[in-house]
Design brief:
69% helix
Amino acid sequence: MPLLSCPMISRHPLPPPPPPLSDDLPALAPDDDALVADRDAAMLELAARGLSVWRLLLLWLTAGVAVLGWAALGLASDSFEQGGLGALTGLVALVLAALFLVPASIGIAIWVHTGREIRDRLDDWADVGADPVTDERLRVQRRCAGWLLPSAAICLLGVWMLMSASDGSGSVTVGQMLYAYGLGATVLLTGVLGALRAAGHQRWSGRLLRPVPIRERGGAHR
């Protein structure tokens, strides 16, 4: 089962998208004060949920599962090279690698999809109301910093790991090299995803909240 679909992880659903605007439904007019209040509340919750500590820890946890998969894959490679009874160990390790790497890959895909869903829903709510969105709290700057700083450090760690793996001596086995490259790539990808999420939200909120007389509708990246 994908890691991110676990009931203990999903918690409560995201705020719903805005109701469709229609000339036949005057109660849903874009300048309706109640709808604008709903817009502000929904956008604040979406911004906070998109950069929550839980989502960052979930990204790291999924990466940890992937690292276990690379370790099992490296063990399988070395075991197959030994031959004999090592082939049986290699087969077991190969199955374990699949049990770790496949759910981790699915988990990362769901994590990325959820981030896009949050961004799209923020854009949809930003189109609601005659007055532009001006709430500076949408920048969630502390949350962005809490994501960006450790993610940048993780990126540097991943680059160092990949460089160290490429400088391995001739005594290193294929399985060890496979694990080293898989570990470095996973760590680097984890840092990049976290950094992009934080930097992307800062860029989005900066464009949305910039003080201009006329701002294009459709969110910040449409």
